[in-house]
Amino acid sequence: MKYLKNIVRHKLRNNEPTLGSWLNIPSLEVTEIMARSGFEFLVIDAEHGSMNLEAAQKMTMVIEGHNCIPFVRVEKNDASLIKRTLEIGCYGVIIPMVNTKAEAKRAVESVYYPPLGLRGTGLSRAQGYGLEFNRYKDWYKDNLSLIVQIEHIEAINNLEEILSVDEIDATIVGPYDLSASLGYPGIFDKKEVLGAIDKYKKICRKYKKPTGIHVIYPDAQEANKRIEEGFNFIVFSLDMLFLGKKIEQEFSGIAKGKIKK
């Protein structure tokens, strides 16, 4: 590990904006292209799709090698899974479906070593393969990010209690699951969904906590809108949609009628 300063964590702690993106394709080439693109952080998605820890570790190495901050979204709020994910050397984890204060505290316990948490001490890539445990232990206190996802209406209703857990660096709205929890999966313009996101923003600002959102489609205007609204942790689209939407856009402009099969 290079043990970079986690600029994302420091920005979030100061309520400053930071822009990153999302990786679903377990490919080192795609990872390198994204890491070279100027994003401050990249999130490797190990909750959905075919990602495994071996692929995530290699992708983490590539991201870090380009001085970009690597995060992993884990499959669930599970201590053993979070411990193993942190040991690959990522600079933070995103925990899905955190709906209560108790679940938020469980995430903290999984991320931090005693006395703050209950994380087991092991030797892997994060600890320099056993050669730099003390260096890692000193580094991670100020550079490891814990971000929880607010992606259910229950989490919105319990948000004030979740935000009272100080060790959480930021929260991020998961628009698909949030809309699904309200009965409108993938329909983001329903008044109930918009109302839930607005409630999220108001509560976070009341307590001066950073806000996060995933702008799903690669639309710069939408990303700029979210930045202007004051969101801090902005995830801009994902590898699959950058690729798919560009192909769709350019392919539709080709005069296919002149090509005979």
Helix content: 40-55%
- SS class: alpha/beta
Number of domains: 1
End-to-end Cα distance, whole Å, is: 52 Å
The CATH architecture name reads Alpha-Beta Barrel
Q: Determine the strand fraction and express it as a percent band.
A: 15-25%
Number of strands: 8
Can you give keywords for this protein?
261 residues; TIM Barrel; 12 helices; 8 strands; 44% helix
Task: Explain this structure.
It is a single chain. The chain is an alpha/beta fold. The chain has a single domain (7-242), classed as Alpha-Beta Barrel (TIM Barrel). Helix content is 44%, strand content 15%. The chain has an 8-stranded parallel beta sheet. Helix 2 packs parallel to helix 3 (53-65) and helix 4 packs across helix 5 (101-111). The chain is globular. The termini are far apart.
TL;DR?
This protein is of the alpha/beta class and 261 residues long.
